[in-house]
Amino acid sequence: MTTFHEPRFVGARVARVEDPRFLTGQGRYVSNQVVAGMRHARFVRSPFAHARIVSVDTSAVPSGVAVFTGEDWASYAIECTSRYEGFQSAAMPVLAVGKVRYVGEPVAMVVADDPYEAEDAAELILIDYDPLEPVTSIEQALSEGAPLIHEHWTSNLYVPRAYTSPDYDEKVREATRTVSGRFVNSRHSGVPMEGRAVLAEVVDGEIVVRTATQIPHLIRTAIANALGISENSVRVISPDVGGGFGVKAQAYPEEVACALAARSLGAPVKWIEDRREHFLASHHSRQHVHDATLHFDDEGRIRALTAAVYVDMGAYSVFPWTSTMDTGMAMGILPGPYRFTGYKVNGFPTCTNKTPYGAYRGVSRPAACFTIERLVDWMARDRGIDRLEARRRNLVRKDDYPWTNAGGLVYDGGSLEESIDVMREWIGYDDLVQRLAEERRRGRLVGLGMAIFTEQSAHTTEEFKKRGVPIVFGYETATLRLDSTGNLTIATSIHNHGQGLETTLAQFAGEVLGIPLERIKVVFGDTNQVAYGAGTFASRSAVLAGGAARLAATDLREKLARVAAHLLEVSEADLVFHEEGVSVVGSPESTISMAELCRIIYQRPDLLPEGVTPTLEATRTYDAPPGTGTYTNAFHVGTVEVDEHTGVVNITGYWVVEDCGVMINPLVVEGQIHGGVAQGIGSALFEEMVYDEDGQLLTTTFMDYLLPTALDVPHIATRHLETPSPNTIGGIKGMGEGGAIAPAAVIAGAVEDALSEIGPVWISEVPLTPERVLRYIRQAKENR
Amino acid sequence: MKEVAAESRTEITLTVNGVAHTVQVSPRRLLADVLRDDIGLKGTNLGCEHGYCGACTVLVDGETVRSCLTLAVAVDGADITTVEGLSGSDELNDLQRAFQEAHALQCGFCTPGFLITATELLDSTEGPLTEQQIREAIAGNICRCTGYVHIVEAIRRVSEARAG
Known about the structure:
Chain A is an alpha+beta fold. Helix content of chain A is 28%, strand content 23%.
C-alpha cells in the first residue's frame, strides 16, 4: 500500500482549468448574453472637445425608439473626490449637461429593438454646439489665462502635489555631476480585444447590471451612489471579460446610463461598445511628462533625484481612483530600485479637454522606469562606465531590506544584484556588447538596452490611505465551501479575466486540503455571490484573494481534521491530507475519503464529535502587511536593429530575469510576463493616441493606432529567481503588471545604443515610431 | 416622428459546422451577426468590426474570412466553420489541446480567431512549420494578453506532431 504525503500544488506548471470554455466558443462574455425582450442602446457622442450644448433636436427619431438626453438624467453623476486638501472636484455626468468637455463624451442615448436600428436612429439626432476654445495640452492647461474646463475651478490643476526628502539639499551638494532631461510617454491605453459591454435589466425590483468590469463590487457602489439607491437593490455581474488591463477598472457613464434606461423603459438594455467608441471614450492612460535631474558623484553613485511629474488626466476625475493616481504613484516609485535618499518631486495632475484618464497595467511605473533608467544610462555615458555596472553600483542590496526608498515606499525584499549577475552570464552580456559594437563599426545600426525595476504589487490599506482615494482598497475576501461530495467552491471578491486565477487560486488553496484542481470551482464576478471587495487590479489578486482563500482553507482543514480524528480514532496531529482524502500517518489503510468525510459532516450529525456544527464553510479576509505592497523585481535586456532609411526598429532579442517570490504556477507567470512585455513593446514603438490642436482624436481605428503583432514581438526568454516575500502568505508576490513596465526604457536604450556610431543622441520620448527615430537619426548626424 | 421603412429581406442558406441554416436577412446584415444572433453561435467574437484584429475570423469554404466585414448575403450557400465546429465531440481537438497545454490563451476573446487562422495554416501548409511561417500566418490576428510566445509554441507543437 502506498504511503500518502501532503501534496505540493504550489509551483506546479499546470494547464489552466478555465481554458476549455474559451477554446470551444463557450466564453460567457457580456456580448454573448441574451435575455428576453432585450433592447439595444447607442450613444450619441460629442464631436467637439469643448463646447456649449445649444440644443438637442430628437424630433427625427422614429417612434418606438427611446431617446434620453443630459437633462433627463441631470441629477445623476459619477463623482470621485480625493481627500487631498484643495482637490478641485467635478462630477462626471451620465450624459453631458449644458457643456461637453471631450470628444466622445456621451450626449444622448437611443434605445431600439435592434442594434442596427439604434445606430440609424442615433444619426437622426441633431445637436447644435457652440464651440469653446479647447485645452489640449498640459502646457496650455497650466498657462496663465487658459480657458477653464470646469468653470467653478480656479485653475486646470486637479491638485498640486509635492514632496522633498529631509536630506535633499545635503545630497545635492554631495553630487559633483548631473544629467537632466524631459521624458515623454505618449497617451495610450490597455485596448483589450473585447470592448466594454453592458446589459442591464430590472428583475424583481433589483437592477441587474451585467458589465465587463474588473471591479464588480465597486461598480455596484458607483451605480448605487449615482442613483441614490441602496446597494442591495443593485446586482452587478461581471462574467468572462475579454481583457481588462485597467481600462475596465473604472466606473463609466454608460454603465449608469444602461441601468437608468432599463429602469425607465422596463426592458433589458444592452450596449456593446464599438472600437471607435473604445478609442474615444474608454479611459486613456500613460501620458506623462517628467522633467528630471539625476545628481551623482564622480564614481557614478547617485545622490539625489529632482523631478516634476506632469500627467494629462483628461476632463474628469474617474471613479474609484480620482485624478491623482498616476501622479502619486510616479512620485513614489520614480527612485526605482536604487538606494539613494535625496529626493525632491512635484506633481501636476492636469485637467484637459481629453478623454478621462484611468488605470492601465503598470500605472505610472512604465513612465517612472523610463525616466530613472534613461537617467542612469546617461549617467553611465557621462562617467564612461558600463550601463550594467552603473546600475549595480546603485542598487538596493540584499542586506538593505526592508528598504525605504527615497519616495517612502518600503521594499520587502528581492534579488536585484543577483538578477543582474544571472542575466550577465545567461546572455553572455560582455561578448554580446562587444559583438554589437563590432557590427556597428561595420555600419549596422544594432544596439542593446536594459532596465531594472521593482514592481509594487498587492499594495493595500497604508498605500491607498496615503493616496487620498475615497475608497481605501485594503483587502480581499474568500469564502470556501465544501459540498457533501467533497468538492470545493471558492467564492472570491477578485475577478479573473485572463490571469488564470481559476487555476492558481485553486492550486494555492486546494493544497491546504489536498483537494486537486478538478474538484475545485472558483466563483467570482457576481455581487450576489461573493463578499464585498475591490476586485482585480494592481497585481493584487493572487496575494490577497489567494491569502484569504488559504486562511479559509486552513479553517476548513481544522474542522475536517477534528472530525476525521474522531472517526479514525487518532489524534489530529497524526493526520495527512492528500488527493485521496485524509489518512493516518503511516497507516494508509486508515483513510477516509474527502467525499465520505464531507458527507458525514452534512448528513450524519449523529456521528460528529460534540460541539461540531454540520457546516463546511469558512470566510476569511486578507490584507497583506504592512499594506504598502510586496515588491517583485525584474531585469529586462533587449537588442534591436534600426533601419537607417525607414526608421523602423526591429527587436532582435528580449530577455527577462524576474523574481516574484514563490511562484504558484510558473506557466501562468511566464504568460503574464510575455503579455506584459508585448504591451510594453506597444508603448515603446507603436501606441499613441494622437490629438490635433482642436482636441480631435485622430487615432480611432487599428489602422491608425497600431498594436504589436506576432511579427513585432520577438520570442521573449524568461528566467526566474524566487525570493519569498517575508510578509505575504506563502511568500508570493504580485506580478501581473511587471512585464509592461520596462520595455519602453529597454528599447529606447537599445535604439540610442544603435545610433551611437552615427553620433550622440539622448532618447527621451516614446513611442519610437519611424518618424521619431528618423528625427533622432538626424540629431545624431548633427551632433557628430 | 418618422416610421422606419421596413427593410427588404433575402432568404439565404448557410451550412455552419455541417448544419444547414436558412435565415431571412437584410442586405446590410453582417455574417458575424448572422452567426452570433440569428444562428446563435456566440463563439465568434467581434474585436474591432473593421477587419483588422482577426477575432471574428471564420472559415468560408475552407478559407479564412473576416466575418465582421462580410455581408451575409454575399456568402449564400457557403460552407462555414466556426470555433464551435473545430472538434466534433465534447473533446478538444489537437490544436485546442495544444493551446491549453502551452497556455496560449488568457482572456480567450481573440482565441477563436487564432484557432481558425491556425487551422487554415496547418491544413494548407506542409509541416513542420518554422517559427517565421507561424508568425507570418498569425500576424493578422491581434492578441493583447499573451505576447504571442505561447501561441506560436502551441501551433509549432501541433505542426510537429502532425508531420510525425
